[in-house]
Design a protein that fits this description.
Layout lengths: L1 H7 L5 H10 L1 H16 L3 E6 L11 H12 L8 E7 L5 H12 L4 E6 L2 E2 L2 H7 L3 E5 L3 E2 L5 E6 L2 E6 H20 L5 H8 L3 H24 L7 H17 L8 H6 L4 E4 L4 H20 L3 E5 L2 E5 L7
Parallel strand pairs: 1-2, 2-3, 3-5, 4-6, 5-9
Antiparallel strand pairs: 1-10, 7-8, 10-11
């Protein structure tokens, strides 16, 4: 009898409790945010993209979403601190800059937590932090920018360097053909199909990414380091994409080798488990609903279903 009374005081059974948590996923996410905060003693917000969503990339509006989220969180709970848990394929470098400046306007100490992937402009955001928190399997990427290509209703990302390299390759091949008294017409015809202004856009985008990375590192993470050291770090993240592949992953050891300030979370620790659970829940949430991205803090979240736009 006493046992039955004890069971009755525990509230709902497992099945009903599970249904409650499924139907109130946002509450579960908020609890997961608090679990990480309880270990780090820092305010935390999350930005999770659906990597395969056509418009899951970083855009200008994201800065506004993040500010809306920050205004809903009681940041006095952990004064002057902010962690941004970030999962993204990359996107607009100027949007990345806006996100960093927005986050820094709310805290003196700013970190980026990468549970899995922060590529391209996502790596730029991480460079704007005081330090980057990575697990043993977290991934950064080259900062060579990706260009948005629209074809009908679909949008894809292509590295800016790929357009520039292909253009220069055609020029070199046409010149070599002329030197060898061979017909250069096939290369010239292909060159005629290339818009020179687009190549200029790609070149300027690459220079912008290089500039933003350098400014962030000088002002924050590598403050006090000499220009040569900072320039070497920036070029390492640019060259990784130029020489190999824009999709090349950079894990914590190489990021440290390149000069970034990395805090590694050992596998199997309470913080590792808490970060992964929060990330896994948020990632499953965007994928199961077909969302472009999802922003959440301890006080609530924002679902973003962005429509495709012609550029």
């Amino acid at each position: 009898m006493a046992k039955q009374q004890k069971q009755g005081t525990t509230g709902k059974g497992f099945g009903l409790s599970l249904m409650d948590r499924i139907q109130n996923e946002s509450i579960v996410h908020q609890e997961a945010v608090r679990a990480v905060e309880s270990l780090t003693k820092r305010n935390l917000i999350c930005y999770t993209s659906f990597l395969r969503h056509p418009v899951g990339i970083i855009i200008q509006e994201d800065g506004q979403f993040i500010e809306t989220l920050l205004r809903s969180v009681d940041l006095s709970q952990y004064p002057d601190t902010l962690d941004l848990l970030l999962h993204t394929p990359g996107g607009d470098p100027t949007a990345a800059e806006r996100i960093v400046m927005t986050c820094r306007s709310y805290a003196k100490s700013f970190r980026v937590i990468v549970p899995q992937t922060a590529m391209s402009a996502g790596t730029l955001i991480a460079m704007g932090a005081d330090s980057i928190v990575m697990t043993e399997t977290s991934e950064l990427g080259p900062i060579d920018p990706q260009m948005i290509i629209t074809s009908g209703q679909e949008q894809t990302l292509r590295p800016a360097a790929a357009f520039v390299d292909a253009y220069l390759d055609l020029i070199n091949k046409s010149q070599e053909a002329i030197k060898k008294n061979q017909p250069p017409h096939p290369y010239i015809e292909l060159l005629r199909k290339v818009d020179p202004t687009w190549i200029q856009v790609c070149l300027k985008a690459r220079e912008l990414a290089r500039t933003i990375a350098g400014e962030f590192l000088r002002r924050y993470m590598l403050e006090g380091k000499d220009n040569a050291t900072i320039d070497k770090t920036v070029e390492s993240f640019m060259k990784e994409g130029e020489l190999l592949s824009h999709g090349r992953i950079i894990r914590y050891a190489k990021a440290q080798e390149y000069g970034l300030n990395i805090d590694v979370v050992p596998k199997g620790t309470p913080l590792d488990h808490a970060i992964w659970e929060l990330h896994a829940r948020c990632e499953n949430y965007v994928q199961s609903r077909g969302l472009a991205k999802y922003f959440v803090g301890r006080s609530g979240g924002l679902n973003v279903q962005t429509q495709r736009r012609s550029l």
